[in-house]
Design a protein that fits this description.
alpha+beta; protease; Rhomboid family intramembrane serine protease; serine-type endopeptidase activity; two-stranded parallel ribbon; Rhomboid-like fold
C-alpha cells in the first residue's frame, strides 16, 4: 500500500516543502547516478552520519548533511512522496519558516536517537526518513481523521482506497518500533531514527495544537485539515479477463 495524496489539499503553495524536495533531488542527482561505487561510498562516508565517528567529535555537521544523502532512486522517491503528501497541510498550519525549522529539528532528533541506540556503529546513516517521519508525526497530531488515499495492489488488480491518518500513521509507527526492537545492529534500516523523528514531530507540534484549541480544534474541523475536501473519483484497474466493475462514483551501505 502506497499513500499518494490526502483529500484536503492546503490550497496554498507549500514553498518549504517543495524547496526541500528540490534540494534532495538536486543533491542526489549531483553524486549518485553517474558516480562510481567508490565515489558514492565516499559520499556516504563523508556526508552521512556515522555514530562512532560523530561521538569522537568528528563530522559534527553530518546530522544536517545526512538528511540530503540517499541510497537510491526508490529511497529518495518514497521519502519525497511522503513529504509531499503530509507536508503541505502542516506547513500551512505552522507557517513556512517554522515548518522549515521544524523539519530540520525532527531530522536532528531522529539521528540523535539512532546514535544513542547504536553508539559504536561504524555504518553511515543517511536519508530524509527521520525528518519526514517528524512531518508524519505532526500530521497525525493535527489531523488524525484526515483521509489519505493509497494505491492498493490486491489479487485481481490495483485500486485506490482511502484510510484515516490515525490508522495509517499509527500502524506505520508500530512497525518502526517493532523493527527497532527486532532488527540486528547491522540491518539496513535505521528504525530508531524513524521513531525519534516521529515522536519529535508530535512533541514539536503539540504547542501549535494547544494554541488552536487542542480537542476543540479537532471537534471544530472533524480532525481533518481546515481546508475544503477535494472531490475525487476512486479508480479501479482490473486485470485482463477479470469481470468489469460499474463506473466509479465520486466521493467525498548505509542505512536509510
Amino acid at each position: 500500500m502506497l499513500p499518494f495524496r490526502d483529500r484536503n489539499p492546503s490550497g496554498c503553495v507549500p514553498y518549504v516543502t517543495w524547496a526541500v524536495i528540490i534540494a534532495n533531488v538536486l543533491a542526489f542527482a549531483a553524486f549518485y547516478p553517474l558516480g562510481t561505487d567508490a565515489s558514492v561510498a565516499r559520499i556516504y562516508h563523508d556526508w552521512g552520519l556515522i555514530p562512532d565517528r560523530f561521538l569522537r567529535g568528528e563530522g559534527l555537521v553530518t546530522p544536517l548533511t545526512a538528511m540530503f544523502v540517499h541510497g537510491g532512486w526508490i529511497h529518495l522517491a518514497l521519502n519525497m512522496l511522503f513529504l509531499r503528501v503530509f507536508g503541505d497541510n502542516l506547513e500551512a498550519e505552522l507557517g513556512s519558516l517554522r515548518f522549515g525549522l521544524f523539519y530540520l529539528a525532527c531530522g536532528i532528533v531522529a539521528f540523535a536517537l539512532q546514535v544513542l541506540a547504536e553508539p559504536s556503529s561504524p555504518v553511515a546513516i543517511a536519508g530524509a526518513s527521520g525528518a519526514v517521519a517528524g512531518v508524519m508525526g505532526g500530521y497525525l497530531l493535527m489531523f488524525p481523521r484526515a483521509r489519505v488515499e493509497m494505491l492498493l495492489w490486491y489479487v485481481v488488480g490495483l485500486r485506490v482506497v482511502a484510510v484515516p491518518a490515525w490508522a495509517l500513521l499509527g500502524a506505520w509507527f508500530v512497525v518502526q518500533v517493532a523493527g527497532g526492537m527486532t532488527t540486528p545492529a547491522d540491518g539496513g534500516v535505521a528504525f530508531w531514527a524513524h521513531v525519534g523523528g516521529f515522536l519529535a514531530g508530535v512533541a514539536l507540534c503539540s504547542r501549535t495544537w494547544r494554541l488552536r484549541g487542542g480537542r476543540i480544534f479537532w471537534r471544530r474541523f472533524g480532525g481533518v485539515p481546515p481546508h475544503p475536501t477535494a472531490q475525487v473519483v476512486i479508480p479501479v484497474v482490473r486485470r485482463r479477463g477479470a469481470a468489469p466493475l460499474p463506473p466509479a462514483q465520486p466521493n467525498g551501505l548505509f542505512r536509510r
